[in-house]
Amino acid sequence: MISKTQYFIIFSFAIIFGITGGFLDLPFGVVVTGIAAAVILIAMIPYVYFLYYATNTSKIEQFLSARKRQPILGFYWALGQGTPDLAEDQLEKVLRKYRSPSHQAIFILADASQRGDVRSASSHLHQVKQTHIREYYEVHVMLEEGRFEEAKERADTLQKDWMNESILGRLYSLSGDAEASRNHYIRAAQCCKGVQRYLLEGMY
């Protein structure tokens, strides 16, 4: 989905680049390639920004909601809504479209994590290729098995700060300390940007 502003930028760039190409006597193929590359770049900028760099979670939610027909974006939007049935429906759409076991494992575990039941999806852990992501979900399983001290020690070794903080948030939630849990989830959200921040803010 391209916004009106993006259409205007693309149209303006195409005209300017076309005129410039004419003045400089650039080959037609070069002009067309340049315009095509610009269109792709301009269309992708919002995706890259909101998925990885934005910090305003209301804007991130709006971006995802406007594109929820796209399976992955719809799945992330649904996870942030905190409605299990909605997330389950979106997850099924993702799994139908993306057949790679390693890709499916990431989405299945993300859904299980938001529900606080990673153990139910632990059979997919070995399919996760990224070591730091697999270790993060392994620590979640430890928490759900009541191995709090072991999980806390492993959390300190996780690659990203938000992972450590979110594990502590979950640990204190399971321990019944709501205030400490909220504080750790807040810190976890502050450690990251984009969709991950949006999902973590939904945890408190």
Q: How confident is the prediction overall: mean pLDDT?
A: 90
Alpha-carbon distance between the two ends: 31 Å
Structural class: mainly alpha
CATH top level label of the largest domain: Mainly Alpha
- Roughly how many Å is the radius of gyration? 21 Å
Q: Layout of helices and strands, plus pairs?
A:
Layout: H1 4-23, H2 28-53, H3 57-66, H4 71-81, H5 84-97, H6 101-115, H7 131-144, H8 148-155, H9 161-175, H10 178-190, H11 194-201
Transmembrane segments: 7-24, 30-52
Keywords: Membrane, Transmembrane, Transmembrane helix
InterPro entries: TPR-like_helical_dom_sf
Give the structure's gist in a few sentences.
This protein is mainly alpha-helical and 204 residues long. It contains eleven helices and no strands.
Structure description:
- α3 (57-66) packs across α11 (194-201) and α4 (71-81) runs antiparallel to α5.
- The protein has 11 helices and no strands.
- With 204 residues, it is mostly helical.
- The radius of gyration is 21 Å and the shape is elongated.
- It has helices spanning 4-23, 28-53, 57-66, 71-81, 84-97, 101-115, 131-144, 148-155, 161-175, 178-190, 194-201.
- The mean pLDDT is 90.
